[in-house]
Amino acid sequence: MKAVLVKEAGGPEVLQVVEVPKPTVKEGWTLVKVQGFGINHSEIFTRQGLSPSVQFPRILGIECVGLVEETNRPDLQVGQQVISIMGEMGRAFDGGYAEYVLLPDRQVYPVKTKLELESLIALPETYYTAFGSYINLKIEEGDRVLVRAATSGVGLAFAKLLKGQFPKVYLAGSSRSLAKEEQLKKAGFDQVILDQGGVLQTDEEFTKILDLVGPRDIKDSLKHLLEGGIICSCGQLGGQWTLSDFDPIEALCRNVYLTTFASANVSNEKLQELIDFVEKYQIDVQPEKIFAIDQIQEAHAYLESSQSFGKVIIKNEGNL
């Protein structure tokens, strides 16, 4: 089978498409024929050598959409549509950057959907993260919502989910450049705010904030949260993993709520809830860019570039 093998840390050029043996099924594991997978920033971090637990060589990929190829799990059928995300996939064991992937039975999630394949491939892990954050923010009519790092895949996915259910809710998005202002407004944002050096260039306040920059700028985000509001910090695009010198009594003194969403908190029910939500509100979840597995270096380079916008997926034409 074709697979993307990383032998050492580096730039997109270390992503090598090679022929490797198709995995053999073993007890407690299921072989999945990969129809496609999304490209995520966490995989870029791993490729760059910033995931200390990952040893090379490794086939990356923390997600995939596919069909059951072979299994001993009694409730799964050959040819059944499944999704898999997280669970040390692409980290402790080889992941979804391949034509086939061997997965622990516990993280193979059968789903039912009428979505087109490209849309289904776009859902994990980007839309799953956005949806979990959306639920935890408890969005209501009349909210004033801010997405920090709005041009990211999760930020754009969140905007589509929110506007799908609440088209009249005010939604602002922040960006380090206003070059993509028109693109963001077409994606559903009502206002674009400049984020300069980790400081939002506005006095606006919000009832709900999705912070995808993470610990680096969360204190500045909290300054823009109205009393009783909720902030969900579920991204680390700022490159900082933890909060230092954080006094919760001082930082949350306006009776505000800090939450998060971890995509490792996954289940069949949660994935199906996302799919049902997308279908119910007829949300356009088509990816922004579709590449073939042989274009994996180009896909990574695009996602890392200043031109990137939205969800990037790989579609395995031979496995449809």
UniProtKB/TrEMBL annotation:
A single GO molecular-function term is:
NADPH binding
The keyword Ion transport is annotated on this UniProt entry: no
Domain named Enoyl reductase (ER) is located at: 10-314
Which portions of this protein are annotated as coiled-coil regions? none
Q: Which domain of life is it from?
A: Bacteria
Enzyme Commission number(s): 1.-.-.-
Matching SMART domains: PKS_ER (SM00829)
Q: What class of enzyme is it?
A: oxidoreductase
Q: Which UniProt keywords apply?
A: NADP, Oxidoreductase
SUPFAM superfamilies linked: GroES-like, NAD(P)-binding Rossmann-fold domains
Name assigned to this protein: Putative zinc-type alcohol dehydrogenase-like protein YjmD
Please report the organism this UniProt entry assigns to the protein. Answer: Streptococcus oralis
Upper taxonomic lineage? Bacteria, Bacillati, Bacillota, Bacilli, Lactobacillales
